[in-house]
């Protein structure tokens, strides 16, 4: 090997080393530029941790006492019957397995669609049972006639395993959200059959909800959504 050849090899290696460093710097600069462009393209104030919006009219979801939150979505007469049975089991098992009190459980039943009428008391069923029955597609299982009382709110005197559960659950502190949208449809039926003003009928129905822990909600499906956003676990019962 000659000294001239060694000098040539060293010069070549130095050139390649410098070239590699330059490429690395260029790559880093390009990556940095791309990241900056991505950041610039992101919406201002974007937060990767999604949080639901809060509205003053929904504050009542957080005022129901309880460290465990459950919402039942009921849309049919059979559905609300199953809801009452499941809710009763929930209270019973929570007490027997965990030693929880009734006040530890925040339980909300949303009565919507064809379950809406069961959110009203006996006085309304006595007065508007025919229209309730038609809208819910429900008749008394024994008489096959429109009920004159809220079938699921009556005392347990018929052997029906569901009868008597609603009053018992109301005593335990269960809450009801009654669909205003379906109520307006029911009020329209009543007004058509009996005469009267729809808004006045809705006001009357609202004054005769099933219990003190019942309230109108703008729409049952909306209440189901808001309850989940306020930390309620959902079970849908057809």
SSE blueprint and pairings:
Blueprint: H1 3-41, H2 60-63, E1 68-74, H3 77-98, E2 105-111, H4 122-136, H5 165-172, E3 175-179, H6 180-194, H7 198-206, E4 214-217, H8 220-229, E5 233-237
Parallel strand pairs: 1-2, 1-5, 2-3, 3-4
Give the percentage of residues in beta strands.
5-15%
Shape: globular
Structural class assignment: alpha/beta
- The arrangement of helices and strands along the chain is HHEHEHHEHHEHE
N-C termini distance: 91 Å
CA-atom Rg in angstroms? 32 Å
Q: Count of DSSP E strands?
A: 5
Strand line-up of the largest beta sheet: 4-3-2-1-5
Low-confidence stretches: 21-42
**How many alpha or pi helices?**
8
Mean pLDDT: 86
| Helical residue percent band | 40-55%
The description of the largest β-sheet is: 5 strands, parallel
């Amino acid at each position: 090997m000659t000294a001239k050849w060694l000098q040539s090899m060293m010069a070549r290696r130095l050139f390649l080393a410098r070239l590699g460093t330059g490429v690395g710097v260029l790559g880093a600069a390009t990556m940095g530029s791309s990241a900056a462009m991505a950041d610039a393209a992101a919406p201002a104030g974007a937060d990767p941790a999604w949080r639901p919006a809060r509205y003053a009219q929904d504050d009542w979801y957080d005022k129901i006492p309880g460290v465990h939150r459950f919402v039942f979505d009921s849309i049919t007469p059979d559905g609300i019957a199953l809801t009452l049975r499941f809710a009763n089991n929930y209270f019973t098992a929570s007490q027997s397995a965990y030693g929880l009190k009734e006040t530890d459980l925040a339980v909300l039943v949303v009565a919507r669609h064809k379950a809406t009428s069961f959110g009203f008391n006996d006085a309304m069923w006595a007065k508007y049972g025919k229209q309730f029955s038609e809208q819910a597609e429900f008749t008394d299982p024994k008489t096959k006639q429109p009920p004159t009382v809220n079938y699921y709110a009556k005392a347990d005197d018929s052997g029906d395993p569901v009868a008597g559960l609603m009053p018992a659950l109301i005593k335990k502190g269960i809450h009801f959200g009654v669909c205003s949208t379906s109520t307006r449809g029911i009020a329209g039926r009543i007004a058509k059959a009996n005469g009267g003003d729809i808004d006045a009928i809705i006001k009357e129905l609202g004054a005769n909800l099933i219990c003190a822990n019942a309230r109108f909600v703008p729409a049952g499906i909306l209440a189901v959504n808001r309850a989940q956003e306020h930390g309620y676990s959902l079970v849908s019962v057809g």
